[in-house]
Amino acid sequence: MGSESERRFFLASCCFWFLLSGIEYSIVLPTILYYFQSVGAGMSYHGYGIASLAFSAMISAPIYARIGDKLMSCKIVLRVGIVFSIVGNFVYFAFPNANMIIVARMISGLGWGLEGALMGQIGRTFNQDNKTKSLALALITRQAGIIAGPLSVQFFEKIKFSFSVFGLNINVNQHNFPGFILCIGWTIVWLFMCLFYRDAEPQPDENENYLIESDENEESAKKTKKFRSTKKIGIIQEPIVVAAVCSFATYLLQSGMESLITPFTSHFFGWEPKENAFMYTVVGLISFIGYLSIQFLTKCTDDRQTLLAGVSACAIVLLMIIAIIPVATFRAEWVYPMFYVGIFLFCWFLPYVVSSSASILSKAASKDQQSQAQTIRTCGEVAAQIFGPFWVPSMFEISQSPGLEVWQSSILMWQLVFMTLCMALTIISWEFMKPEDVEPYMEDYMLAGNGLDPIAKFDDDLMASQASLPTSMISSLAELNKRSKLDHRIRTRTISKSETPSKLVDSILISEPRQN
């Protein structure tokens, strides 16, 4: 199997995991409340069940990411993480008890934390030109699973059977059937990963390195020149911080909207579960098309443009909600079109923020920090799932107190301020939000592996031996080095090994000093 075929198979294997994780999200979330009710649990257990999954995912995600970056592979963490998903879903359907349901979701959350490690491995495998499309494809697959889930839930109502395993008599009904089907599904995925999953060879970047052109060729080189960092930058850097903040703000808004939309339609439209189920299906389809559109937009736009478009659209949707709630009345005709437009904008542009932020994180992070960078986004997502719903329930409390609508609307103002801040950060950092223009820092041995001949800084009597250049050139190079104040980003191109030293006088590749 060729390298390109290996990469396609690797991406398909990752998408297999994302598909089932999307299905799990979409069939457990709408049914877990009724499962708790069927075992006599109170309403508070519903929140505990959702939060327990997110909490354990926050714990496991950094661990998987650290291991994945250390090994430069996801093979081990995949096999371990999926086992937690299998065990968690087995407990979910085998032990119909309120406390055991929470334990089951917590165990499943340990497998849910694999997302960051997988996204990091995808970013490590594909080059700068293909990162966005590859990461978007993984997210599209998850969205397909989210769409498929609600369509299948309607067939669960008549399911009722029992069986015995390990001496345990298990009764399966419509409430715990999601755990049963997911346990089987994750077992199939685990077997597939054990037998067929392989980490693919990283895809080389085109025009990976360039050398400084002489002054007379400077203008002609502007379109092709790139930059290389001469110092290793940690994971906390400007594009990563901005992308992570935008991602967290959007996930926080999404989590709140998921909790807001059902009471909104019930309060103003009088919709029943049937109408809401249809609405969620349409919402999923719009988001799916939004993810697909990114595949075409990458040909004419960059990640920072789609990121700004996404956060701007989310801010517009918030403004619409803030304007509607105080004046809307039950089944007012003008509310419907406003609602439909807001839903369309939010669901279409939400993928822009999610996909572009994941791509910026991947492009800005070094290869040995890919999974950790993606885990920042993943932890923000699960944290938003925990905290997002808290600001929504009070919005639709039925009360006769005057001015309640204004107070309800003001709850959303802080979220609008947050989204406005994201827009401002993106614009202020615009120049630095295209990390593909900067070549990551490489050690001397990595430079040599890329066909580059590193030259040490000239600052002592050992310059000639360190640089492996004729002594006659050292004084000229040292004088040039003194006059030059080196920036952390040095324009470079590949030096041909057949180039004579005299051709390096006008154009010099400088790397970090070697440690003797």
From TrEMBL:
- Name any one GO molecular function: transmembrane transporter activity
Give Gene Ontology CC terms: membrane
- What are the entry keywords? Membrane, Transmembrane, Transmembrane helix
Q: Which SUPFAM superfamilies match?
A: MFS general substrate transporter
* Compartments, as annotated in UniProt: Membrane
Under PROSITE patterns, the record lists: MFS
- Mode of membrane association: Multi-pass membrane protein
Start and end residues of each Major facilitator superfamily (MFS) profile domain: 10-438
Q: Which residues cross the membrane?
A: 9-33, 45-64, 76-95, 101-123, 135-156, 176-197, 235-257, 277-294, 306-328, 334-354, 412-433
Query: Is Transmembrane helix given among the entry's keywords?
Result: yes
Q: Which InterPro entries match?
A: MFS (IPR011701), MFS_dom (IPR020846), MFS_Domain-Containing_Protein (IPR051068), MFS_trans_sf (IPR036259)
> Mind telling me what this protein is named?
Major facilitator superfamily (MFS) profile domain-containing protein
